[in-house]
Amino acid sequence: MSIRNRTSRLAGALGVFVKRYRRNAQKHHAPNDRRYDRDVERTMRRLSPAGRSDLLADDDGSADDAEAGVTDVRRTT
């Protein structure tokens, strides 16, 4: 697995994790009605602080890719 693919996958997993975790609880539901992914938590704990910071800051080297002529292809449904 290339570094770019791994980083993109980790960034995507972290984004989904953060989005689910930070959303407000819905009215008339249990305040702890969020799904929690232990695998993502375990992966984030294994990352170095610098790696975690880069993911949170969305510093994945995409500016370097643009200079090299690499385009990012994303699927949308």
Structure explained in plain terms:
The chain is mostly helical and 77 residues long. It has one domain (3-68). It contains four helices and no strands. Residues 23-77 are annotated as: Disordered. Residues 56-67 have a biased composition (Acidic residues). Residues 30-44 have a biased composition (Basic and acidic residues).
Descriptive keywords:
0% strand; 77 residues; mainly alpha; 57% helix
What is the strand and helix layout of this fold?
Elements: H1 3-22, H2 38-46, H3 49-56, H4 62-68
Question: What class do helices, strands and sheet pairing give?
Answer: mainly alpha
What is the arithmetic mean of pLDDT?
Answer: 68
Terminal CA distance: 25 Å
Cα Rg: 15 Å
Percent strand equals: under 5%
The description of the largest β-sheet is: none
Principal-axis shape equals: elongated
Helical region count? 4
Oligomer: single chain
Sequence stretches where pLDDT stays below 50 over 5 or more residues = 65-73
Helical content (DSSP H or I, runs of 4+): 55-70%
Order of helices and strands: HHHH
Overall number of strands: 0
Number of domains: 1
Summarize the structure.
The protein is mostly helical and 77 residues long. The protein is built from 4 helices and no strands. The two termini are 25 Å apart.
